[in-house]
């Protein structure tokens, strides 16, 4: 299966269990990999034969910046569901979401989740 990917998309959101996360917010980094058939686009050179990744980016941005969830697992699932609902060409969504500054004492680059969702 062919793939489209978006790496290192950064958004400011208010997701988390702790009140500080909901009030102060933080940066969320999202990586996406979409599996779909790109053979028509690779032959035609037409945008209509692929998925517009700018629209995918806007879909993710809207979910991260305009919704709030306690868990990034829920955020990731909502993003996957939204992409699968609005972009029928996409067969599978792989998403990773990272929090660079969660309220955890210690030294680390980030904490996060990865999900894979596909059509049934």
From TrEMBL:
<dbReference type="GO" id="GO:0046654">
    <property type="term" value="P:tetrahydrofolate biosynthetic process"/>
</dbReference>
<dbReference type="Pfam" id="PF02152">
    <property type="entry name" value="FolB"/>
</dbReference>
<keyword id="KW-0456">Lyase</keyword>
<dbReference type="InterPro" id="IPR006157">
    <property type="entry name" value="FolB_dom"/>
</dbReference>
<dbReference type="InterPro" id="IPR043133">
    <property type="entry name" value="GTP-CH-I_C/QueF"/>
</dbReference>
<comment type="function">
    <text>Catalyzes the conversion of 7,8-dihydroneopterin to 6-hydroxymethyl-7,8-dihydropterin.</text>
</comment>
<comment type="similarity">
    <text>Belongs to the DHNA family.</text>
</comment>
<dbReference type="GO" id="GO:0004150">
    <property type="term" value="F:dihydroneopterin aldolase activity"/>
</dbReference>
<protein>
    <recommendedName>
        <fullName>7,8-dihydroneopterin aldolase</fullName>
        <ecNumber>4.1.2.25</ecNumber>
    </recommendedName>
</protein>
<dbReference type="GO" id="GO:0046656">
    <property type="term" value="P:folic acid biosynthetic process"/>
</dbReference>
<dbReference type="InterPro" id="IPR006156">
    <property type="entry name" value="Dihydroneopterin_aldolase"/>
</dbReference>
<feature type="domain" description="Dihydroneopterin aldolase/epimerase">
    <location>
        <begin position="4"/>
        <end position="117"/>
    </location>
</feature>
<dbReference type="GO" id="GO:0005737">
    <property type="term" value="C:cytoplasm"/>
</dbReference>
<keyword id="KW-0289">Folate biosynthesis</keyword>
<comment type="pathway">
    <text>Cofactor biosynthesis; tetrahydrofolate biosynthesis; 2-amino-4-hydroxy-6-hydroxymethyl-7,8-dihydropteridine diphosphate from 7,8-dihydroneopterin triphosphate: step 3/4.</text>
</comment>
